[in-house]
Amino acid sequence: MFRFKISSQSLTIDSQLTIKIWVVFVLSFLLGTGCQESAQKMSRVTTLPFYSEATFTPHWLETDSDSLANFHQIPAFQLTNQNGEAVTEKTFADKIYITDFFFTSCPGICPKMTKNMGVLQDAFLKDRDVLLLSHSVTPEFDSVSILKNYAIAKDVIDDRWHLVTGERDHIYDLGRNAYFVEEDLGLEKDPDDFLHTENFVLVDKNRHIRGIYNGLNKTAIQQLIADVATLKLEK
């Protein structure tokens, strides 16, 4: 009888310990997940810098600074999207947008870049203030119909994400001299040199560059999402 009581008591204590361990484990998991999600959504800074050239040296300016009157902006452009529609700087008037440069036949980095642009599309699916813009760097091949087929295959939502083609010189000039997407600083580029980059560029409602991100890196993509949230807080 005495043995039975001890065993029963031991069993009760063991059960209580097991329950406590599981409670601690579940709480730790939930807290850890919550912290991780908060970290993913938190930007590095409370405001984003402005960028004006290829070194991406940050300029910490107030949004009402007089310096912005003559600060670098993405110039006017004329392109055509996957639906054969004209896409210009006016398409992005009063919009935040994220842009990259790709080509549909790319077997290397482009599929992963496109997948991560898809992540961004999902992240801002219900946000009408944020758009995506992907420029083809082989416009002589990437016709409207090819871009359309590619858009369908990659689940591109037409009014959220523009895949564009156009004059090659125009696209390359935008990539190198407007968005500064190439990393080989100081190297003189021949017009025939191929433009190939994994960078995503964040552009604000006034066509100012506010960030550059590695489009292959999941952490960078999450940071980009967080930085858009920060940008939306600007007056």
Topology overview:
Elements: H1 2-41, E1 78-81, E2 86-88, E3 96-102, H2 110-123, E4 130-136, H3 144-153, E5 161-165, H4 168-178, E6 199-203, E7 209-214, H5 218-232
Parallel strand pairs: 3-4, 4-5
Antiparallel strand pairs: 1-2, 1-5, 3-6, 6-7
What does this entry look like structurally?
The longest helix is centred in the first third of the chain and has 40 residues. The protein is globular and about 45 Å long. A 7-stranded mixed sheet has the order 2-1-5-4-3-6-7, sandwiched between helices. About 40% of the residues lie in helices and about 15% in strands. With about 240 residues, the protein is an alpha/beta fold. It has 2 domains: about 40 residues; about 170 residues, Glutaredoxin. The N and C termini lie far apart (about 75 Å). It has 5 helices and 7 strands, in the order H-E-E-E-H-E-H-E-H-E-E-H. The N terminus is likely disordered.
How would you describe this structure in keywords?
235 residues; alpha/beta; Glutaredoxin; 2 domains; seven-stranded mixed beta sheet; 5 helices; 16% strand; globular; disordered N terminus
